[in-house]
UniProtKB/TrEMBL annotation:
The protein, known as: GOLD domain-containing protein
Cellular location(s): Endoplasmic reticulum membrane; Membrane
Chain ranges of the GOLD domain: 52-137
Position of the signal peptide: 1-20
InterPro entries for the chain: Emp24-like, GOLD_dom
Membrane-protein topology: Single-pass type I membrane protein
Family statement drawn from the similarity comment of this UniProt entry: Belongs to the EMP24/GP25L family.
UniProt-listed SMART domains: EMP24_GP25L (SM01190)
PROSITE patterns: GOLD
Transmembrane segments: 204-224
Any single GO CC term annotated in Swiss-Prot or TrEMBL for this entry: endoplasmic reticulum membrane
Length: 237
């Protein structure tokens, strides 16, 4: 009997929420709702030879995480444009990876926490590269939940609710358009650096050929002069 009482007391102290809790934080804690909106970042980084850099980005459960990257230029020996990138869950498990000059990673977030993104320039032992990154997380359906809460609080009329729904859908479309625009900007940047590299290559190669042609002409002139000139200043033939 005493063992049963101890067990009931233990369950009372722990509470029903101590078993099987989801990783998603509780909503309405202290009267404040968790913000579940779109956030995205885009910037460029330079990876030295064999360098590895990692970034962390917070995401809630039931979101959509994405990572897009493109190698813009490579300098040094080897010039391998492949980039090894990985994304790990908050628990440290590998979620996705790519090994290419340009890649996209998309997956639904199964748990709440900081997701780790690592970029490794492992293919270039003596070369560095510049990489353009675009990553973030977005949520589908959070606008409707927020709209219902606003309707319950303020009793908005049908016209305003329709306008709000249209604005939310427009924001979603603008967000995805911005993602595609960033990828197009990556490709444009890579083409720009490739054009500059080819321009410098053509200029240096043309200058080197000009120097070789002038030097070869000068050496030919000296050789011909030695054929027709002697020490007694009489022609040999």
């Amino acid at each position: 009997m005493s063992g049963v009482l101890c067990y009931l007391l233990l369950l009372f102290l722990l509470g029903p929420g101590s078993v099987g809790r989801k990783t998603e934080p509780q909503v309405d804690i202290g009267g404040q709702d968790l913000f579940r909106g779109h956030d995205q970042y885009d910037f460029s980084i330079v990876l030295a030879a064999s360098e590895r850099q990692c970034f962390w980005h917070f995401a809630h459960q039931s979101g959509h995480f994405y990572l897009t990257y493109m190698v813009q230029w490579v300098r040094g020996m080897g010039n391998d444009r492949h980039l090894y990138s990985t994304v790990s869950s908050p628990q440290g498990y590998l979620v996705a990876f790519t090994n290419d000059a340009a890649g996209q990673i998309n997956f639904p977030t199964q748990e709440t926490g900081f997701y780790e993104m690592c970029l490794s320039n492992v293919h270039n032992t003596f070369g560095r590269m510049q990489v353009f990154l675009n990553f973030g997380v977005y949520y589908e359906g959070f606008e409707e939940a927020q709209k219902n809460k606003e309707e319950e609080k303020k009793q908005l009329n049908d016209t305003l609710s329709t306008i709000q729904g249209s604005v939310n859908r427009l924001q979603d479309h603008i967000f995805h358009i911005w993602r595609h625009y960033n990828f197009a900007r990556m490709r444009k940047g890579a083409d720009h650096y490739l054009l500059l590299s080819n321009y410098n290559y053509v200029n240096w190669w043309s200058a080197a050929q000009s120097v070789i042609i002038v030097a070869a002409g000068y050496l030919q002139l000296l050789f011909l002069k030695k054929l027709f000139n002697t020490d007694i200043k009489k022609p040999r033939c």
